[in-house]
């Protein structure tokens, strides 16, 4: 009785069939008494329930196709955005390295200027040494020359250090540029895919939606509302599912054998107690597809 209550709460059970089910289990004598008349009534009810289930199932299939298109398209813009961000990051790094290199080159030029200045000074001091009046003047000029030589050594050391840094940064830029070219290639490919998908699927999607609208007209308003509510809440967009390996095809919770039997009989709309999805019998689907 608890099971019956749940189904009524979900406003999806068909009272008459439910009563028949209960009578069957509680009092088999009663069932056999009115057996003939019940069969007729049931088969009518069964047919209409089967039809309702199949209409919902077809609607579900169309919606699933629409979902697939949207998922396909939905992931690509995100991937493209990620790639664009990555490319931009690399461009920024390249510009930063390029600025560093320019700065280092300016420093190299400055060191070279210092070397030239020192060499000029040395030349001048050496000339002056030819015209000194005494040893002290000569010694003093020698000291100046030695100092300038040390200055040249320091500048050469700095120039060497900066040159090495330029080489390293240049190699880094080359490496980043290679990766960037690779990513830019993928980006172009993804952009192409997206525009192709959009072009290809826009028409398909519109056709599917039109088909769904037509099909909706065949479904009871009451079932349609329930169906759409379940679909909206279901993570995979499935509102009507089959039993797969004794479990709900939507949420994978186990379905007891008696309930599976009820589903197979499709005398009423039965929903999953765990996730609320509507069940449709596999055989009913298969017979419809034949
Ligand atoms: Zn379920």
Quick check: average pLDDT? 85
Could you give the count of β-strands? 4
User: Which ligands does the model contain, each kind named once?
Assistant: zinc ion
- Sketch the topology as an H/E string, one letter per element: HHHHHHEEEHEH
Q: C-alpha Rg, in Å?
A: 42 Å
Structural class: mainly alpha
Key attributes of the depicted protein:
4 strands; disordered N terminus; 290 residues; two-stranded parallel sheet; binds zinc ion; mainly alpha; two-stranded antiparallel ribbon; 8 helices
Structural write-up:
The protein is mainly alpha-helical and 290 residues long. Helices cover 80% and strands 3% of the residues. Bound molecules: zinc ion.
Write the layout of secondary structure elements.
Elements: H1 2-9, H2 15-26, H3 28-33, H4 35-129, H5 135-216, H6 221-233, E1 240-241, E2 243-244, E3 247-248, H7 257-265, E4 278-279, H8 282-289
Parallel strand pairs: 1-4
Antiparallel strand pairs: 2-3
Helix pairs in contact: 4-5
Would you kindly provide a brief summary of this structure?
By secondary structure, this protein is an all-alpha fold. The protein has helices at 2-9, 15-26, 28-33, 35-129, 135-216, 221-233, 257-265, 282-289; strands at 240-241, 243-244, 247-248, 278-279.
């Amino acid at each position: 009785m608890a099971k019956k209550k749940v189904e009524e709460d979900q406003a999806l059970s068909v009272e008459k069939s439910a009563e028949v089910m209960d009578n069957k289990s509680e009092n088999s004598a009663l069932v056999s008494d009115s057996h003939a008349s019940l069969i007729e009534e049931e088969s009518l009810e069964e047919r209409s329930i089967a039809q309702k289930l199949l209409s919902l199932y077809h609607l579900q299939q169309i919606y699933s196709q629409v979902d697939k298109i949207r998922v396909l398209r939905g992931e690509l813009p995100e991937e493209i955005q990620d790639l664009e961000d990555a490319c931009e990051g690399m461009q920024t790094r390249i510009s930063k390295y390029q600025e560093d290199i320019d700065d280092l080159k300016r420093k190299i030029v400055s060191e070279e200027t210092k070397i030239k200045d020192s060499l000029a000074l040395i030349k001048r001091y050496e000339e002056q040494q030819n015209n000194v009046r005494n040893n002290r003047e000569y010694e003093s000029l020698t000291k100046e020359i030695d100092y300038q030589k040390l200055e040249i050594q320091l500048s050469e050391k700095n120039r060497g250090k900066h040159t090495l840094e330029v080489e390293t940064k240049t190699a880094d830029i080359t490496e980043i540029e290679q990766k960037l070219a690779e990513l830019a290639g993928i980006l172009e490919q993804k952009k192409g895919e997206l525009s192709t998908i959009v072009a290809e699927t826009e028409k398909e999607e519109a056709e599917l939606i039109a088909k769904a609208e037509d099909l909706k007209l065949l479904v009871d308003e009451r079932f349609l509302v329930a169906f759409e509510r379940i679909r909206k809440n279901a993570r995979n967009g499935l509102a009507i599912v089959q039993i797969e390996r004794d479990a709900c095809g939507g949420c994978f919770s186990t379905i007891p054998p008696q309930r599976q039997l009820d589903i197979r009989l499709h005398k009423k709309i039965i929903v999953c107690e765990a996730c609320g999805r509507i069940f449709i019998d596999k055989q009913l689907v298969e017979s419809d597809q034949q």
